[in-house]
Amino acid sequence: MFRSLKNIDSAYQQTKTLALLFMVLCASIAGYAVYASQRTARMAQDHIYLLDQGQLMAATSHNVKDNRPVEAQDHVKRFHEFFFTLDPDSKAIEHNVTQSLFLADESAKREYDNFKESGYYNNLIQANISQHITVDSVIINPSTYPYYAKCYATEQIIRATNVTTRALVSECYLRDVSRSTNNPHGFLMERWRVIQNNDLRTEARL
């Protein structure tokens, strides 16, 4: 009789242990399922799916601030390309300069007024001179705000008989503003100034 009771007690303990293990296993599976579903939901939120001519493409979203230094470099490059790329056409000059002034404060407007008052743009038009700039590099210091930027560029003055190449270096500070069609990166250049604009060489045109 006692042996029978002992066997029943042992079987009960085994059943209890198995039941506890089964409950722990079920809880683990349920916990992992919740974690996996949440992770899948987060990953899905980071992707946008685009349909292009019947092809499904995934676009991944990122934090905008992660890309700010690159956007700042492109903003400075864009400004210099508009401000210094000029053709002997008053409307083309006005269009380019107007686009550039959306990206900078009164320091750029002041430089434009100085060029205009000195007759610089009129000389380009009358002598059929084109001006082209290539931005070589833009150095950004993202550790301080407003961000300090320094631009290194090569400028070409194209005349009927020769081409003059200049080395241009400028500096400015960048602060955040609202994005718009005219200012897609959401920066405004402040205290912009040209610190070097030296002739490198003049070559005859063939």
Report what the structure shows.
There is one protein chain. The strands form 2 sheets. Strands 3-4-5-6 form a 4-stranded antiparallel β-sheet, covered by helices on one side. The protein has helices at 2-45, 68-84, 90-101, 106-117, 120-126; strands at 47-52, 55-60, 130-141, 147-158, 162-176, 187-204. The protein is rod-shaped, with a radius of gyration of 33 Å. Helix 2 packs antiparallel against helix 3. By secondary structure, the chain is an alpha+beta fold. The chain folds into 2 domains: 2-60, no CATH class; 65-204, Roll (Nuclear Transport Factor 2, Chain: A). Strand 4 (147-158) and strand 5 form a beta hairpin.
**Domain module tally:** 2
What is the general shape?
Answer: rod-shaped
Low-confidence stretches: none
Report the biggest beta sheet as strand number plus sense, adding barrel if it closes. Answer: 4 strands, antiparallel
Number of strands: 6
CATH homologous superfamily heading of the largest domain: VirB8 protein
CATH class of the largest domain: Alpha Beta
**Topology as a string of helices (H) and strands (E):** HEEHHHHEEEE
Q: Per DSSP, what share of the residues sits in E-state strands of 2 or more residues?
A: 25-35%
Quaternary assembly? single chain
Mean pLDDT: 86
Secondary structure: helix percent = 40-55%
Q: Which fold name is given in CATH as the topology of the largest domain?
A: Nuclear Transport Factor 2, Chain: A
- Alpha-carbon distance between the termini? 119 Å
CATH architecture of the largest domain: Roll
Q: Strand arrangement, largest sheet?
A: 3-4-5-6
Please identify the structural class as seen in this structure: alpha+beta
